Amino acid sequence: MQLQYTTAQHKFRHEVRDWMTAHVPKTPLVTLEREDGYHEHVAWERTLASGNWGMVTWPVEYGGRGLDLIEWLIFEEEYWAAGAPARANQNGIFLLGPTIMDYGTPEQKARFLTPMAAGEIIWAQAWSEPGAGSDMAAITTKAIRDGDHYVINGQKTWSSRAAYADWGFGLFRTEEGSKRHKGLSFILFDLDTPGVTRRPIRQLHGDTGFAELFFDDVRVPVENCLAGVGEGWNVAMATAGFERGLMLRAPGRFQATAKRLVELFRAHEKTAAPAVREAVLTAWMGTQAYAYNTYAVAAKIMAGGKIGAEASLNKIFWSELDRMMHRTAMQLLGAAAELRTLGNGEINAWLDGYIFSLSGPIYAGSNEIQRNITAERLLGLPRVGAG
Amino acid sequence: MQLQYTTAQHKFRHEVRDWMTAHVPKTPLVTLEREDGYHEHVAWERTLASGNWGMVTWPVEYGGRGLDLIEWLIFEEEYWAAGAPARANQNGIFLLGPTIMDYGTPEQKARFLTPMAAGEIIWAQAWSEPGAGSDMAAITTKAIRDGDHYVINGQKTWSSRAAYADWGFGLFRTEEGSKRHKGLSFILFDLDTPGVTRRPIRQLHGDTGFAELFFDDVRVPVENCLAGVGEGWNVAMATAGFERGLMLRAPGRFQATAKRLVELFRAHEKTAAPAVREAVLTAWMGTQAYAYNTYAVAAKIMAGGKIGAEASLNKIFWSELDRMMHRTAMQLLGAAAELRTLGNGEINAWLDGYIFSLSGPIYAGSNEIQRNITAERLLGLPRVGAG
Amino acid sequence: MNLLLTPDQLELAESVRTYLAGTHGPDVLRRLDAGPNRDPAIWQGLVDMGLTGLCVPESAGGLGLGLLEAALIAVECGRVCLAEPLVDTAFIAAPLLADAPETGEILQQIAAGTARIALAHPLNPWIADLETATHWLGTTLFPVTRAQAGAHHPPVAASVDPLRNLSPPQETPENPALLNLAALMTAAQLIGLAEAMLQQATDYAKIRSQFGQPIGAFQAVKHQLASAAVALEFARPAVWVAAQALHDGLATAPAAVSHAKIAAGDAATGIAETAIQVHGAMGYTYEVDLHFWMKRSWALTAAWGDRAFHLARLDAAVIGGGIAIGPRHSFG
Amino acid sequence: MNLLLTPDQLELAESVRTYLAGTHGPDVLRRLDAGPNRDPAIWQGLVDMGLTGLCVPESAGGLGLGLLEAALIAVECGRVCLAEPLVDTAFIAAPLLADAPETGEILQQIAAGTARIALAHPLNPWIADLETATHWLGTTLFPVTRAQAGAHHPPVAASVDPLRNLSPPQETPENPALLNLAALMTAAQLIGLAEAMLQQATDYAKIRSQFGQPIGAFQAVKHQLASAAVALEFARPAVWVAAQALHDGLATAPAAVSHAKIAAGDAATGIAETAIQVHGAMGYTYEVDLHFWMKRSWALTAAWGDRAFHLARLDAAVIGGGIAIGPRHSFG
Fold first, then answer.
1. Whole-number Å distance between alpha carbons of B372 and D320
2. Do A255 and D330 touch (CB under 8 A)?
3. What is the pTM of this model?
């Protein structure tokens, strides 16, 4: 075990820091969940790409820097320390990108990865359906082969970014009459294809981040199918693995929250409830533990290992930690917690953050599902009974 | 709603207080879980009976005082405030007694209730079997009719008080080949009947409170069957209702614990962890809420109402509150928490109390079962799936 | 000693619940959210029910009922997420003014529904419903001037609750009686909010199916909802006792009020988190009604003394020795 | 920067785990509980494994390994609820003495297993394993006199853990290096204890049937055990990092040690409660082995600085500004 960064890693950290200092917008962008904010965030993606910071771990030929996971963690630490914006292209660079690298044809890689890293094409997720949330294998939206196209009919919902994004990816039933995990294929589609209707869904905070997608005889070329026909479930599980696993939530993000929480506490120390003081310390411990764990997993992967069901432990931990930190902040704000803008005229980011943190234990596989996976795959408890 | 006690109630309170002051042993008795301590506690039961305090709510003809539930609550408040010992006859006076009053024949009432109130006969519970804990309907111990006797063969376990008590009560399968809740009868038996073997079970703390009971052709007269043959399940559910419901745990017991916890906190205030301060306040609020709730339920019953599945809410609440209070005390004791006797030579009652509190969410129907009951009977959620 | 609610009290609460269930459903909340978020017709309905006069002495044209009755109705206001300032005007201002000397015609006006009273206290960084108020009450009663009424454009403080109208605070000294009464009635509304959210989550768990069965059949969902039911069961009586203790002017009333406010706030905010979790992604949308109740719960939990404020009051009482504790002191 | 345990480290831990699993099962704990609770044969086995010399420099006949390796073995000691004072003597006293000037023959004696060193610190109201010790260490090393060795009859302080032998404390000033190292190694043992209890509860949930299926098939049981696994997963790396930071003498080491001690203690005491709940009434008996691990967990969680002590240290570091915090400071 080696707790010191190399000279090269220090040098890289400072390179990131200098670039961020020079480029991170001085005033926070409008929320990504609103159309104006979405476009501000896409512009930021392109600024990142201009500095070749779009996705540092990707191979150089796809617009990455071919850096290792430790360097990625350093990048993320500097990114969040600089207060840089949320990533509009999260779905693409962290989820779809790695999936295409694992399962894509050379043509698909050439076609999709470079514009993804460049922030030219922003991707939306299209997993869930009204009847298929936690139970994703209940998907019914059909993609029926017709010559060199698939004809898609059905509905997706809670599709993140789908309100404004360019392309989408998801699972579709390509084999008529197939059941559950069988007969599903992983298909990429242009959200502007005729027959696709987007209905933005207003979220808790009032803004519209995700959307319903209606497919009415939507024709998608067969070459947009990733991996083999009927292989969709396995490909999706790999993607979900990335999502729950290492890359969806870098430790730096939560360490930045914990630091802001400590500062908020210092400002309200005199009026804070006793347990809040302990919660603030728990927040620091939790975010540090999450960082240690992520550095360890990164090292394991660099040494040729894989993330399996431990990804579920990760997802449970960061989502409940994030909710706890924001809940604690709401307590510290007291009567001001309900205000959308605080006395100083600033947006009450803790309130928006608390609302968003409530979705953490729900999306990317609800924590109930994650605890089932943990119990059954890591602890080997029987599957009998209700999930 | 009336928050003031009547003059009569005040007078009664002082009558109890004076008697307790005069009779409660000055030094704490040895634990009820040891043979010497058991006999000390039985002697205390007889002292109580000598003052006609054995079971104040029972009718006068059975050795009670015919008092109402509010007077019972006042009695319990004074009982716990005086630091009086645990009740060796808990199983009899709070569980079996009320059941006999509801289901017993005049002969059974005359035969069992008076010696029970007098503390002359101490009762053990015999519900569980090795294969029937939470799932009590899985009982297999047989009681087969043979002339004017039942012949009992089988095994009971975790029978509280069975190590030293005089009589036991429990459920037995009187109908051969019957399944689950059917064919069970509620039978009372002398623990010294030939064929009954007691094997005391050593508990977590090392003492032997409960026992295994082995039945080898044990002949019990048919008149020891309470209510109809095959009616056992319903009778047992009524008893369990008493157990989970109003009378097993009077609020005074927990209010006394909360008060001691506040005093412990005052003594360790300087070194206490921040959240412990809040836990102490939560303890006070919780015990007060439990008292309010119990007074309200008592009034409801006095007005002709019944306790139903709300009994499950009670059991969950007091058992988890009691564990939390003792866990908090362990934290306040710090490095001394592990010591069986504290510096002043006194027994570390908080340690014993913590250990005992860990059984609270398990006995009298595990809290998992209670949450199922709450969800299904109070909230009306479907039974489908694993319990 | 009797903690039972009387048949009259239960019947009163029941009648108000029935009325509000019929006239103030989620559709009304969505309508108010879309347009002006106060509606004279709703207010008039409450006046016609006699609710504005609930705590006004019969001599002044009211029903002359007590704080416990008022708290029971405040629960119903929370249950339907009522936006009109009935609780502030009729259950907080009215009882305080009824105890004041010289109140002139104000009590009659409250009973008649022509007076709407906003409440100011240094603990709150805002004042609610000032712009539609005729008066505001701090330590004494003031008429609302046009300037004050207009004070919210600009700038009104925007609450996360789309049906709450907050204006900048009015300078006023502390009024302990106001604080205790307002904290109690806020706790009562939080009970109603919590009960409604538990009901919504339970109803959803019965109809939403995944993996071939209603999600409410899964123990993971059952036990979350059961724990919510436990929290509510033991928060409710703390509110009833606090209401009666305040009504009776018991010395333990302030501690009882702080207990009630903390227990009701914890139940409401905790059940809000349970309810959204049970609703899954649906719960994160504006399309499901749940969000109105969640946001009101967050707002009221921190209003009239947040958790830390009331814990500090309890600390002085329980740890500091301000009140007697232990088995003999269930009620003081 | 590399947080991976090396193959050598994993293999070392694996070999010790295998040895202890084969020689120090629950039957041994019951035997020790019944009779004299220390056994020279067990000690000799640890000596023959070379564990007493793990942290002794090779020049003094040891393996000269570091604190991380020692912590990994301490985990295994916790996993089997080891009673012999290996951790105190070989993983706490030895590294401290190895850094001291003039240590004479003591390091050789530790490696050879002829020295057993008890540890004294003002934070602990007792001293463990004094009666079988040859020396005790506070700020410096003292031989144990017959009087001291006999000091426990009477009075020895009886621990809830039947395999812990506590004697009255020895007067000694604070030794921060001792405290940090002992707190770290205690945290490591707590990880092993927690892992063992989780394993026992999981195994029991697989074989215990109620309502026609293994209780481990019920989501209520699954999710309790899953939450236990989460707590462990994020406590473990805190211990590894603290061990390495202390080994490297980093300025952040004390905060890392306090974090490790709190996280490991919370995991162990929390999993103890989960484990007994999953075992039901069986878990409340002395007949199930679980109680040995629970009691050791309670004892070690409060030893070498209880939760409040280490929280106060973190408070000064994190809130008080003693260390740098935030995304750039994962490791200082």
1. 46
2. yes
3. 0.97
